Amino acid sequence: MSGGKDPASGAPVSSAPVLEVRAAAYTVPTDLPEADGTFAWDSTTIVVVHAKAGGAEGVGYTYGPSALVSLVSDALAPVVVGSDAFAVPACAEAMARALRNIGQSGGGAYAASAVDCALWDLAARLAGLPLHRFLGAAREDVPVYGSGGFTTYTDGQLSDQLGGWVADQGIPRVKIKIGQDRGSAEQRDIERMLVARETIGPDAELFVDANGAYTPKQAARVAVAAHGAGFSWFEEPVSSEDLSGLRFVRESISADVAAGEYLTRLADVERMCSAGAVDCVQADVTRCGGITGWLRAATVAQAHAVGFSGHCAPAISAAPAAAAPALRHLEWFHDHVRLEAMLFDGVLDPAGGTITPDAGRPGNGLTFKDADAEQFRVA
Ligand SMILES: [Mg+2]
């Protein structure tokens, strides 16, 4: 080992072989039933990856099925163990090759993303640097928006959550789910958007997310009918598979159209941008190839003069978000915020509408709480 600091001896290091990559899955019940326009759930599974080298340990994760644990153990760990912990892009290439016949998108990409995030954290810890500075900081503070507003909430629950973000925590932008029951409850959607506006007052930004529940013309009609709610962001008004439908909605309404949370490959990000489908690309660092893929996706969006926003998983997204120059904001997703605070020390405070990666903690600043997590372990 020789560059950063050996955590044990304090000696500088610039290389160290990865000694171990291991994964485990934890399923945590939600605090209330949750649903959006096209999916419902009452628990969330996180797959946590730990990677060791040179006396340091990095941690990454993805949100996905417990089956991803064996994908990490059987397919990805064998091609990463023994590699140089500082050669993260080389490990990303090795993982992509290992996934060729398994599938480089979908679950394969989710598993590789968790490993990639753990490796970047590991390398930064070996170097003795906070991860956002190891990556190359573009900003100190990362803007966030409160995200939840599930279709299963009563109006009272919706108001309590939105008011908590805007009035109590000073977060000036929030997002709610619409498209209830696969787009079959338009009036209810519009009523809830008006309740949200009433709750947050005239100055906070209101975002809505239909999770692909509407048809293109239906989405455009709802946007006109809900004009009084003054929303400025329409996420997945139609399926993100339908690039021409997204483009139709984008050209029909004044709010920005956003999508991209399911993208796992750089070519898919390029296709979405080239199609003129969105005003803002969303990418999820736990899905799109980890920090390696996410920063490249940010660059593709910037090259197309399209906005870029981080999807979910705020604790693990904070450092790369601070390293992406054209970042618009990061999603402060209720379900993940709650789970991440239960399982990790070092999660950040969104008061005032930004989070600030801790320059005094090495790596991503997160410490996994093994003992607290054990009760939720499923694989
Ligand atoms: Mg969404």
From TrEMBL:
The keyword Zinc-finger belongs to this UniProt entry's keyword annotation: no
**Pfam families hit by this protein:** MR_MLE_C (PF13378), MR_MLE_N (PF02746)
Q: Among its keywords, does the record have Metal-binding?
A: yes
Q: Its domain of life?
A: Bacteria
Per UniProt, the keywords (alphabetical) are: Magnesium, Metal-binding
Query: Which cofactor(s) does the record list?
Result: Mg(2+)
Domain Mandelate racemase/muconate lactonizing enzyme C-terminal positions: 155-256
Q: What is this protein called?
A: Enolase C-terminal domain-like protein
Q: Which organism is it from?
A: Sinomonas flava
